[in-house]
Design a protein that fits this description.
The strands form 3 sheets. A 4-stranded antiparallel sheet has the order 3-4-5-6, with no helix packed on it. Strands 7-8-9-10 form a 4-stranded antiparallel sheet, with no helix packed on it. A two-stranded antiparallel sheet has the order 1-2. By secondary structure, the chain is an all-beta fold. It has strands spanning about 1-5, 10, 30-35, 40-45, 45-50, 55-65, 70-75, 80-85, 90-95, 100-105. The protein is built from no helices and 10 strands. It has one domain (about 20-105): Beta Barrel (Thrombin, subunit H). This is Anaphase-promoting complex subunit cdc20.
Length: about 110
């Protein structure tokens, strides 16, 4: 069912549902982010995944070991290619999503 609201259509039910069983329920964590290339980056446990909205495919970016984790936040760069992964030890890992490669680690970040 669709409703009209100030000349915009508003869906009354979800178009898709993403099952994220291991998503931590913590108000202070930022564990998913929608990128400019229509890809969602999401953290489940200590693993960061991609979900591509165009074909509903998923792929793994990286798993953070217990010594460096847990992941506390993820964020796409505006270029839609690079991702910042915030870790519990005040570190941020910068990842290249195309090559699944870590570019650098910034330490002492908040």
């Amino acid at each position: 069912m669709l409703m009209h609201c100030d000349h915009h259509l508003v869906l009354q039910s979800p178009e898709r549902t993403l099952d994220a069983l291991d998503l931590m329920d913590d108000f202070y964590l930022n564990l998913l982010d929608w990128g400019s290339s229509n890809v969602l980056v999401i953290t489940l446990g200590n693993t960061v995944y991609f979900w591509d909205a165009s074909d509903s495919s998923t792929s793994k970016l990286v798993t953070i070991d217990d010594d460096n984790g847990p992941v506390t936040s993820v964020s796409w760069a505006l270029d839609g290619r690079h991702i910042a992964i915030g870790l519990n030890k005040s570190e941020v890992q910068l990842q290249d999503s195309a090559s699944n490669r870590q570019l650098r680690t910034l330490r002492g970040c908040h």
